[in-house]
Specification:
Layout lengths: L1 E2 L3 H16 L7 E5 L6 H14 L6 E5 L1 E3 L10 H8 L11 E2 L10 H14 L5 E4 L21 E4 L2 H6 L13 E4 L2 H5 L3 E6 L5 H9 L17 E6 L7 H4 L11 H15 L8 H5 L4 H7 L2 H15 L25 E6 L4 H15 L3 E6 L9 H15 L6 H17 L7 H21 L7 E3 L3 H4 L10 H14 L3 E4 L9 H16 L9 E4 L14 E5 L1 H11 L9 H17 L7 E8 L6
Helix pairs in contact: 1-2, 9-12, 13-20, 14-15, 14-16, 16-20, 18-19, 20-21
Length: about 600
């Protein structure tokens, strides 16, 4: 099932669970398997609402969690024990003895017996009635990484590199992510009477399609759910975007051949058979399920020319519009000549990584560009960076002309870092210092992109400053701060990201703040003349047919962008990953028959006019 967002399906699933919970008795409790991660959070919040507002009692509920990192204390901020209490258990009336979570502190030599006992406890309660799942980017359910067998039991498993990399932000660096975890096995999950897998956001789209439509294989443990008698995948539209009925709807039934749909289909066809668009022939269409497009729009030649022109018209070296040019086929308007451009960056590095070259172009071409860092990004900064700053400051303050206040501050920071330990929660002074460190790097990066001093602002949105990844809650103050910026700057052009990100992610919440602020300020005269362009940060990159504006970069421009990214030393940003993505965009355009460029940054007009 695919929904517009995560809210309605989470509500429906909570109602389904509530019916079963209300029917439970002391003799026959309702047994639910629970998942961590961001996907089930909206579901848990709805269960809490039902408890608080409608009196739903959880006293006859027994829960078994899927997994836990091995080696983490229960009070560690990223332990799943802590997560489940923060997100659900502390807010409902579950009996503590009915809560079961794998113990990450168990000694390695005792893990096997612990896992056997975990299985026996599940069986003693009659098995799991409803199992909630998410899906990782390796296709894992629980922590059943590639290679997990269909009949695998609860056990300890080594985590895949990609899984650890995805968790790096939570742990302030990949090196801090545990290497092992205890997880229910695929066999344990498959015994549940009903299974529901939740997936939101476009970064889950490709692996979800492989799990649902691909072969059943132990390289994607979620694919085993195809064999379950009562398994449901509940996803939003962006997570479902790679399913055949959405990616290639012409293969499953009749479609309306709008210009957007034709572009999507022809690009797919060119990719599939490895030809530039203008070299496609009638036989290519007929042999690949697209004969009806020729019947409706003429032969391959006419269709090819139409799509080729669409693609060509997306390419521009003038992202703010070209003065004096006919803009009827250009992505952006020529007027006004000097536009007020606002670039929103959820974390300070996001915009530079995704569109550093475009930032430079906009400045060079005379536009009034303001870079808005929506959050401080301090959760990304490692302790060693804060400690390094404090150590240097103490050395300076202890010199021939002592600075007692600075010396005291430096020692306070070092003491707080020692006190919290490697994985503790940063106290406010430490977070503030880390934010200042990243703020300085962001200024340097902005300068490297050509922005003048004062052209970068820091909103420090409250939801971020008081939260952690996977635990953020957008507030009215966040929307108010964003609306204030829009009202003041009255932009002609906005660049932002997060429109298709996982709903509880930082990027999605920052985009939601912009969307709701726009709803408040969008009646202003300026809004009628403002265009919004979305770029992709941590989500799946824009597909060729989704790109509405492609900004090419020369080798020199790409190198300048990489130099700007290198300014973010405290978060170890991988500039070559950004370069590879930009170069891949250019290679894709080249293979379709467009001009050959070194690299391309890509954008989509919002609200998206995707073909339906």
């Amino acid at each position: 099932m695919a929904y517009a967002d995560s809210l309605e399906p989470s509500r429906q699933l909570a109602e389904e669970a509530a019916l079963l919970i209300r029917a439970a008795t002391p003799e026959k409790p309702f047994v639910i398997g629970l998942a961590t991660g961001s996907s089930p959070v909206p579901f848990y919040r709805e269960l809490i609402r039902l408890h608080r507002e409608e009196g739903l009692s959880f006293r006859h509920v027994v829960s078994f969690n899927l997994d836990e990192y091995h080696g983490l204390r229960r009070d560690h901020p990223e332990s799943y024990h802590r997560f489940m209490h923060d997100q659900l258990f502390d807010h409902v009336d579950m009996v503590p003895g009915n809560i079961h979570i794998p113990d990450g502190t168990i000694r390695t030599e005792d893990v096997y017996e612990f896992c056997q006992e975990y299985e026996r406890k599940i069986d003693a309660f009659g098995g799991i009635d409803l199992q909630i799942l998410g899906i990782g980017r390796t296709g894992h359910i629980g922590f059943n990484e590639p290679g997990s067998a269909l009949d695998s039991p609860t056990r300890m498993i080594a985590l895949d590199r990609l899984t650890r990399r995805d968790a790096a932000a939570d742990f302030l660096g990949e090196s801090n992510v545990p290497r092992f975890a205890i997880t229910m096995g695929v066999g344990t999950i498959m015994k549940a009477r009903r299974v529901v897998l939740l997936a939101w956001g476009e970064n889950k789209a490709e692996i979800l399609a492989a799990a649902v439509e691909g072969q059943v294989t132990d390289t994607i443990s979620a694919s085993f759910l195809q064999l379950h008698g009562d398994a449901t995948f509940i996803v939003d539209e962006t997570a479902a975007s790679c399913l055949t009925r959405n990616r290639c709807p012409w293969l499953v039934g009749p479609v309306h051949w709008s210009s957007g749909m034709m572009r999507k289909a022809v690009v797919w066809l060119a990719r599939k058979i490895g030809k530039p668009v203008l070299k496609l022939v009638d036989e290519d269409y007929n042999e690949n399920g697209m004969a009806d497009v020729l019947a409706e729009h003429g032969g391959a030649y006419d269709v090819n020319i139409g799509v080729f022109n669409q693609l060509q018209h997306t390419i521009t070296g003038w992202p703010g519009g070209k003065p004096g040019a006919d803009d009827s086929h250009r992505p952006e308007r020529a007027l006004p000549l000097r536009k007020r451009v606002v670039v929103f960056s959820p974390e300070p590095q996001d915009a530079v990584v995704a569109m550093g070259g475009t930032l430079e172009r906009l400045v060079e071409q005379g536009h009034e560009v303001t870079l808005i860092c929506q959050t401080s990004g301090n959760l990304r900064v490692a302790d060693m960076e804060a400690r390094k700053f404090a150590t240097i400051l103490e050395d300076i303050a202890s010199g021939s002309q002592p600075w007692p206040e600075q010396q005291s501050y430096a020692r306070t920071i070092q003491g707080l870092l020692d006190e919290k330990g490697e994985f503790g929660v940063d106290p406010s002074p430490v977070r503030h210092l880390k934010g200042l460190i990243l703020r300085g790097e962001a200024r340097d990066a902005a300068e490297a992109c050509g922005l003048a001093e004062g052209a970068i602002r820091f909103l420090d949105l409250p939801f971020y400053e008081s939260g952690r990844y996977r635990r953020f809650h957008l507030r009215a103050e966040d929307i108010e701060a964003t609306a204030t910026v829009l009202a003041e700057l009255r932009p002609h052009q906005i660049f932002a990201t997060g429109d298709v990100a996982e709903p509880t992610s930082l990027q999605a919440l920052c985009f939601r703040a912009l969307r709701e602020a726009w709803a408040r300020e969008g009646n202003g005269e300026w809004a009628g003349h403002c265009r919004v362009w979305v770029y992709r940060g941590k989500e799946r990159p824009l597909a060729d047919h989704e790109i509405d504006m492609a900004v090419p970069l020369s080798p020199i421009q790409l190198e300048r962008k990489l130099n700007a990214i290198r300014k973010f030393q405290s978060i170890r940003q991988d500039e070559w990953e950004a370069a590879t993505l930009n170069q891949k965009n250019a290679a894709n355009y080249d293979s379709l028959g467009m001009a050959e460029y070194e690299a391309i940054e890509s954008f989509q007009r919002w609200p998206s006019a995707a073909p339906k």
